[in-house]
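Mods, move this if it's the wrong board.
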Amino acid sequence: MYRTVRTELGNAPPAGAGEALLALWLVSDVQVLDCASPARCEWVAQLDADPAWKPLQPMYRPYDALAHWTLAAHVDGVRNRPLAPCSGRNYDLALSLGDNIDNAQRNELDAFLTIMAGGSTCLSALGGAQDASGELGPGPWPFWSPDAAVPDRLKPRGYPAVPDFRERAGAKLVSAGLGFAWTSVAGNHDLLRQGTALPEPGIEAIAVGSAKTLRRPDRCAPVDPLAHFVKHPADFSRGATRSVPALETRRAVSRPEWIEAHVTRGASGYTARHAATGVADAVIDTEHVRLILLDTNHPAGDFQGSVGVAQLAWLEDRLAEVDHERGRVAVLASHHGALSLTNTLGRDPDRRLGAALTAVLHRHRCVAAWLVGHRHLHRITPHPGHRGGFWEIATASLIDWPSQARAVEFMRHADGQLEIACTLIDHAAHPGSLARLHHDMARLAAGERMATMEGAAADGHVRLMVSA
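Not the wrong board. Structure tokens:
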């Protein structure tokens, strides 16, 4: 496989493969979701042409009910072949870069963890937006319907009819699990309603109940939809138009519960102490590399991130420890990257943005890479500095196009240079499978954004050099 060589932070690689130090398998923004949840507000998708509503998009995707099947296809593939493509080294760790789930719900979290660690799970596809009815009045159904006899607004754009969709999508999914070490970082969708609003009593009562709306609630016309949703998410899910089975497991998970669930299912890095304190910053040490997991969620809500002063001090100390070990490498992993650490909501004096975090990383020569997600696109950005610099490697989402995983391998050459080999990985789900259906529908939905989400050649199969 040809890989583009990038030398912004180093020199052309010498001959030979070099010594393999670490092999990671990455996914991001999986967004496993419960498509029938009353706490979702799919009707917002009908306003996607209005600039005021853009910050809340997307609240709905035609392939919502298939996200967990796509994750399972990727997990099956890497379990059957757990070898990094460049070095041939067995993967040391699988890492999900946040937004593992969509709506911060316990049943979504349980499904994600089951697929990663192994077991059986089920997320019903009954009662969601794909179930057309007369509740929204005459005319084509505004969402995708898998039923051939139902006129909707999406089948004319190429979305297929799938007669047995609900039965198949809502069937029991059995996963053998990854079969090697894994972990994840928390993204905004893991802890915030629709990735944006803090759980509050109003939306929690709706979430665990049986009343769901697919219509815009009366008098829901905020001047600033994002600001209103952050403060009053329940206003977007009132005025039921249909009944769904009530589920207590649709309640939102707290950060301590999120951590505890990971500990229980065997995720690396987190301990009972993390669960007790609710602190989701952790360290995973291997022979040659320290991987640092950083929680970049903003305490006041909103989908963009920030970091705390205490977190930066903790990070500084962990990097200084690596600096004192000759030849050792540090890698940071967080959901938000430099361009997404922009959240000033609440004007908390203890919160810092992207520039402050990158400044910390630049102070430590050991830092080679920063692994991020959130933006649903492949992008690799060099951050040169007076101590050499590091690569910021953003991996696109699984829920949206191009629905790819990424292998990231760290290798040391004889001249002392570090090479980071990146390879994009498609799942090998067969035609007719739910994961392949998701792939085809995500391609349709991407439309003119497809090239941006895929990234350029220099964002995909690459060899990233870091000077000795």
